[in-house]
Amino acid sequence: MAVDVDRLSYEIFSILESKFLFGYDDSSQPSLLSSASLAGSLPLAAGPGGRVCILSIDGGGRPSDALLSAACLARLESYLQRRSGNPSARVADFFDVAAGSGAGGVLAAMLFSRGPDGRPLFAADEALRLLATWSRRSSFGSGQGGSVLERLLQRRPWRRLRRVFGDATLRDTVKPVLIPCYDLATGAAFLFSRADAMEADGYDFRIREVCAATCADPASSAVDIRSTDGRTRIAAVGGGVAMGNPAASAITHVLNNKQEFPFAVGVDDLIVLSLGTNFSAPQKPPKRPAKPTADLVRIAVDGTADMVDQAIAMAFEQNRMNNYVRIQDIGFGSSNSVPKTSDLKCLMHCLEEKLSQRNVESLLFRGKKVSEQTNCEKLEWFAGELIKEDEKRKKSLVPVVTLKQQVITPSTSSVVTATSRSSAS
Q1: What are phi and psi of 275, to 5 degrees?
Q2: Which terminus of the chain, N or C, has fewer Cβ atoms within 10 Å?
Q3: Residue 98's pLDDT is what?
Q4: Residue 29 CB partners (closer than 8 Å, separation 6+)
Q5: Distance (Å, whole) CA 162 – CA 95
Q6: pLDDT of res. 322
Q7: Domain PNPLA spans what residues (predicted)?
Q8: Alpha carbon of residue 272 to chain centroid
Q9: Number of other CB atoms surrounding residue 160 within 10 Å
Q10: Catalytic positions
């Protein structure tokens, strides 16, 4: 029997992806390269209650880096409210895990932190307007004294974020949240995780400080933060250095966290929405030359994010249209002329244009192509899939997700430095 070369290449690449990108290697499972697979057998059915729903948000240290993602989530939330018939529905009600890097981590924290009423702290459109307001009030670019969040967090330490999050910690989220930074003390990536926080006080951090850590400018001084019990200390620079696109870390976390996601054994059991960045607003000529280091870091972060997207797209290849959606500013079209961020109305109009664009998709060994659907159409389809997953769970007697509960551990006065932890924590 002749085997299609592209399909065979995909099967081989899938094995490598499973072992080395997602850290998943279970020899007891059927091989992706089995004869049945090559013959075109259907993918394994998802768990009893459906698929695990994952949200991933890219982002740099500037509020504008999360504007496109916030606009996408505001549109998605409106679709969910309409389709569910519940005007109070929130994005966090339909996702099981949220991962966000940089400004994307701030956005994830805003949408998944618990408010005084026990519901998510922000609606998606509220978060969008707050980020847009932060973007309007300050200039952009390292040539003008650093990014907005850098100045916000370092010159006036966490004042604005303190107003937003107060003293809430990672335990105070309605769903699992994953936010990365790079720890200079250990020379390794560090992933702030609700799952870790629920297990030990030494990994529970205030959300406002987590946001500071993931947005810290690598070209400037690190942000020094400690866990709520003072035992774990991190010298953090931005999450984009290690995980500009945190989708892979979220997938790894789910596939290896059997306590919380017992039925997730492969990508067929997941449905992922990955939101990219690269949304840029025009800026005045800088008063000082831009920092070459900052520019190089940003280029490297954007390139890494694209590579992660391509790798994940390959891993989902057979079921990409049903399991993985990526939305990112492609940088061309009429909306290339972005209005000044001081004009909120024009900024919102520009974001609407971005949502009407057709996205660029990665193809296995064939580069990229323009999608047949607009970003809005993808979001509307994804909202329908989230509603279906929610309906499945209501009918299922077996829970898809069993969240960890807090474990009380003896306190100690000693201070330790954070050790490197894998994204499968």
Answers
A1: -110, 125
A2: N
A3: 97
A4: 265, 266
A5: 26
A6: 83
A7: 55-251
A8: 10
A9: 15
A10: 101
- Give the other-Cβ count within 10 Å of 340's Cβ: 12
**Which helix or strand (DSSP H or E) is residue 53 part of?**
strand 52-57
Instruction: Choose among 163, 130, 165: nearest CA to 148.
Output: 130
How confident is the model at residue 197, as a pLDDT? 94
- Token pair, residue 117, equals 């009423």
* Complete DSSP assignment for 276-318: --------PPPSSPPPHHHHHHHHHHHHHHHHHHHHHHHHTGG
Sign (positive or negative) of CA dihedral 235, 238, 244, 249: positive
Contact present, 65 and 302 (Cβ < 8 Å): no
pLDDT along the chain (425 residues), means of 10: 46 52 50 35 53 91 83 96 96 96 93 95 95 65 42 55 92 95 90 93 95 83 89 86 83 93 91 78 45 52 64 71 83 43 73 84 65 90 96 88 67 39 36
d(CA 147, CA 168): 25
How far is 186 from 209, CA to CA, in rounded Å? 19
Host H or E run for residue 61? none
Alpha-carbon gap, residue 210 to 197, rounded angstroms? 12
What's the burial of 303, exposed, middle or buried (CB within 10 Å: 0-12/13-18/19+)? exposed
Question: For residue 159, what pLDDT is reported?
Answer: 76
Residue 50 per-residue DSSP state: B
Q: How far is CA 57 from CA 99, 271, 279, 332, in A?
A: 6, 14, 13, 21
Contact 416, 231 (CB under 8 A): yes
Can you give the pLDDT at residue 137? 56
Q: Which residues pair with 327 in a beta bridge?
A: 275
Closest CA to 351 of 272, 246, 273, 281: 281
DSSP conformational letter for 344: H
Q: Is 188 helix (H, G, I), strand (E, B) or coil?
A: strand
Task: Please give the pLDDT value at position 337.
Answer: 40
